[in-house]
Amino acid sequence: MVYDVVVLGSGPGGYVAAIRASQLGLKTAIIEKESLGGICLNWGCIPTKALLKSAQVVNDIKHSEEYGIEAQGKPNFEAIVKRSRGVAEKMSKGVQFLMRKNKIDVVMGYGTLKAKGKVEVKAADGKTQIMEGKHIIVATGGRSRELPAMKIDGKKIIGYREAMSLPLQPKSMIIVGSGAIGIEFGYFYNSVGTKVTVVEFMPRIVPVEDEDISKELEKNMKNRALT
């Protein structure tokens, strides 16, 4: 089938572009290899914010007396992770609804550009098909980088996916890299009781942010006993 627009990737860039194309009257299809919503909705921005919300509630309870409230509670790590995954699933289903509402064809599989206006899609069962589009939008997003000296084994050395869905809370953790993602995980795990150490190659944490922000954030982290 020939489409006016074929979008490769269903993250926030891809699914929004597909919706707008359909609204403009263009026959549109979107290709996704895993889950609608991409990394952001399923394994990035959204579920991490759900974890951070739980961490905030934990910290609020710890300091409730400052607000004249007597409260106590112990973090339930398994329940926190379950809530985060539930939020992600709900968001992904929301994107599925938007695709149906806007009459966008969803094709599940791994897309590869083969020629001008042609994308080969390989499904999970190994079957392939060629899709044609007058216009092709590449919205494949980014991926985590594995360090040569620290290969991810899913046990001792883990990536962001494992960090978001561990079955048991670790007693201690070393986070390599203090960018936004590293600091988010550091804040969350520290808040629920894990001893966290952040390692950063650059002279300051969150090195791509303003220096003033780095200084204040570092003070905050140290006050939380996060080294």
Description:
With 227 residues, this protein is an alpha/beta fold. The chain has 2 domains: 1-143, 3-Layer(bba) Sandwich (FAD/NAD(P)-binding domain); 160-223, FAD/NAD(P)-binding domain, CATH 3.50.50.60. It is built from 7 helices and 8 strands. The chain has a 6-stranded mixed β-sheet with strand order 3-2-1-6-5-4, covered by helices on one side. The protein has a two-stranded parallel ribbon with strand order 7-8. α1 (12-23) links the parallel β1 (2-8) and β2 (28-32). α3 (45-62) packs antiparallel against α4 (77-101). The radius of gyration is 21 Å and the shape is elongated. The relative contact order is 0.15.
Question: How does the major sheet shape up?
Answer: 6 strands, mixed
Number of domains: 2
Say how many strands there are. Answer: 8
CATH topology of the largest domain: FAD/NAD(P)-binding domain
Order of helices and strands: EHEHHHEEEEHEHEH
Based on the coordinates given, report the CATH architecture of the largest domain.
3-Layer(bba) Sandwich
* Oligomer category: single chain
CATH class of the largest domain: Alpha Beta
Rg over CA atoms: 21 Å
Query: Which residues form runs of ≥5 with pLDDT under 50?
Result: none
Query: Mean pLDDT, rounded to whole units?
Result: 94
State the helicity in percent bands.
40-55%
Percent strand: 15-25%
Strand order of the largest sheet: 3-2-1-6-5-4
Counting DSSP H or I runs of 4 or more residues, the number of helices is 7
The first-to-last residue Cα distance is 56 Å
Outline, from the CA principal axes?
A: elongated
Q: Structural class of the secondary structure composition? A: alpha/beta
CATH superfamily of the largest domain: FAD/NAD(P)-binding domain
